[in-house]
Amino acid sequence: MKEIKRPTIIDVARAAKVGASTVSRHVRGGKSVSPAVAKRIGIAIAQLGYEPNTLARSLRVGRSQTLGVLFPHVNNVFFGNAIRTIQFEARRSGFTVMLLTHQEDAQLQQEQLASLKRSQVDGLILVPAAETNIAQVRAILGNTPVVAFDRPLGNALDSVMLDNEMAGLRATEHLLWHKHRHIISVTAPYKLNPLHSRLKGHKEAMEAAGRKVETIIWADSEQLKRELCLALKRKRGPATAVLSMSYSVTIAILSALRDRNIRLDQIAFIGIDDLEFASFLDPSLTTVAQPAEQFAKIAVEQLLKRTTGAKESPVQVTLPGTLILRASCGCDPALSKGR
Amino acid sequence: MKEIKRPTIIDVARAAKVGASTVSRHVRGGKSVSPAVAKRIGIAIAQLGYEPNTLARSLRVGRSQTLGVLFPHVNNVFFGNAIRTIQFEARRSGFTVMLLTHQEDAQLQQEQLASLKRSQVDGLILVPAAETNIAQVRAILGNTPVVAFDRPLGNALDSVMLDNEMAGLRATEHLLWHKHRHIISVTAPYKLNPLHSRLKGHKEAMEAAGRKVETIIWADSEQLKRELCLALKRKRGPATAVLSMSYSVTIAILSALRDRNIRLDQIAFIGIDDLEFASFLDPSLTTVAQPAEQFAKIAVEQLLKRTTGAKESPVQVTLPGTLILRASCGCDPALSKGR
DNA sequence: CTGTTAGCGCGTTCAC
DNA sequence: GTGAACGCGCTAACAG
Fold first, then answer.
1. pTM, entire model
2. Domain A164-290+323-338 sits in which CATH superfamily?
3. What's the count of helices (H) and strands (E) in chain B, helices before strands?
4. Which of A83, B155, B242, B252 is the most exposed place for a label (fewest CB within 10 A)?
5. B266 — contact with chain A (CB < 8 Å)?
6. Are A64-162+292-320 and A164-290+323-338 equal in CATH topology?
7. Which portions of chain A are predicted below pLDDT 70?
8. From the Cβ of A4, is strand C under 7 Å away?
9. Strand D contact at CB of residue B94, distance < 7 A
């Protein structure tokens, strides 16, 4: 079994006593090859253990059949599920996925984009880092199709994301419905559009109810602890409910509460973005979940359309979140049994 | 800005009035090019927005500078961190990473392996699905270097993983030290070597202490609830401590306890594998954490050695886990403040 | 130090 | 229905 180098299409051709192009037609299927010859080729391929060289094929046809995916990271349910589905959908269409991460770092993002470009990806699904603008991306990517995922990147691009404003609005309304009058919202310092929109929806709901908007911008853990305690423990109209604007903010809040020995059942809480462990906390956490799989399907579908040269104007898909009622908002704990 | 097709090395050569190979030497750096010429080439590249075509280069040199990574999924801290570090380390050495998942499915794993092979990856970091043997992998991969990650795959391969037996032993010893006499261990039905080893270590510790080994094999959630309740609530010597053998088992146990309204503080608990939310539970969860970053570094390093043709006999690296003492084992809750 | 030439493995004309 | 020849973009030999 001296496999000093891998068999090429020519080796197969020789073994099957046919021309190379006949083998080529056969492996790609569909094309007309006489049954007898097809049989011989099939045997030769099996015997030699031939696998087409994707690199050579891509170079020749000018498409790599590869989709780039550039995410901040892979460490949360939403991204994890999205990635799984993206891979699945891409595979179904004969594409492979090249997954990179930029760790929310603009510099690294640019490098990764360059890497993707050099790899000749046919298209890209991008969750842009904060303060990214479309020009930076285009400068590196040229005219490679891009769809923005989870975060907008100008309306010259296809995009798919949550109806963030609605999410903020609905979550707030639910808290108000539970008769909370002093709700404190917590957001991250990143200049990320989704956070702004969620906050905007929150403000809208608060103002419609005639309540004062109070927001903490989480800068560091000490400051968050301080401000959160202040709001929750003040004598005059202490906050009784907390609305978290994102996954990482929720983590920060949970840490802060834990460190200050404030039990979750002393306040009401809703977090935008679901957490895999939301139902294991006590009380279980009410969250607004994003339809990751649906996002992924739409993103891939849209991207594949573009790679085949569709020229329609960009579509911006916006999907509603799902308010998962568990216990932390004040709803009956029994509800949490669902999941 | 009519960018009808991307500039090639020849376009650059013409623009700079030099030969193509001179440009080639320049872009790869290091090689000797006269300063004057280098300058001209630099300008031409900037002007045209030239990016080398990785595909063509790979085809030519016979290496893709790409490392394949095939993981079960990306949805847990351990895998997530490992992936991040693998990408980082690979990048540092000029490699890009092609990440695929097999969802613990042997069939899908084989397909993904084939895909990786066709993509001409220079090496592969693999977390093998259950019941995978080395022959299956080699059949598809030929002589592409592979390092097994987190799970062994025969000793003909480089591998890096946890000292699983030690982890099971240490966790058990800690529970015994807390005077628990009836400890119940819970494992998954998958025929995964790490689970066996952890269980083996557990048994060792139990037998050394003269205690009876009781193990639940988690088949489905109803059965788990039933058997767990039975063990915890029986009249004669009820179990007072639970040892979970893996991340997913821990999730299952937490679900079971929640559904049966058994609060975590009624029992002692240690889980092998850390969870990102371990410190948010009440009581916070004591776990054995795996050094994901260290694993990743070693795996990449070893793999890169192989891709440059190292022929030493396979090395099997085994690293100890870290017992993170939080509250659920019975240690002072104050300890949990650490993280 | 530089340019010319010849393929890497494949798909695609275009003759047969 | 089939095969020979060319070239995708690049780098490794060589010759200058």
1. 0.91
2. Response regulator (3.40.50.2300)
3. 12, 12
4. B155
5. no
6. yes
7. 1-4, 30-31, 333-339
8. no
9. no
